[in-house]
Amino acid sequence: PSTLKPLDLEVIIRVPTSYLKTRVLLDNIIDEVIYLLSEWGAGVQNSIAFPELIVPVLVSLKRCIKITKQSGHRGKGSGSGGDERPTKAIKTLIERLEEGREWVQERRKHVGFAPNDRSQVDKWQNAVKVGETPVGKYAAVLKKTRERNRKLLEKARRGEEEYLRQ
Known about the structure:
The protein has 166 residues and is mostly helical. The chain is 61% helix and 0% strand. The chain is built from 6 helices and no strands.
C-alpha cells in the first residue's frame, strides 16, 4: 500500500516525481477522466446526434480497458495484486454512455423531421432536460460525490474532526 496522498488535480500544475508510475497517480487520472467525460456526455446528451458523437469515446474507453487487462493492471482475480476499481469505474461510464445512446435512439424513433430542419432540431434539443437523461444523472452523482469529498478534504486541512466520517 502506498503512503502517498491522492492529488488534487484541480489545483496542481505539476505532479511530483515521487508520484510518477504509482497507482495513486493512475487512480487520480482515471477518476478525473471519468468525471470530465461524464460532464461532457451530460452536456451533449440533449443533442439529437448523441449516439454518433459518443462512438469515438466508447471505442477509446473500451480500448483502454483492453490495454489495461493486457498490461496486468487488472484486479485481485487476475494475479496482479491490484484492485479492480479503475476498470469498474471505466466500465460504469461506458454503461452510462450506452444507456444515454439508447435513450436518444428511442426518442429519435418518434421524430418526424429531417436532420437539416434546424429549427425542429433546436426545438427537440431544448425540450430535453439534461438532468433527466441517463448521462446527466450519472454526472450529477459524480459531481455530488466530488463536492462531498472536497468538503471533507477542506475540513481535514482545517483540522476539523468530521473528515473521517462519511
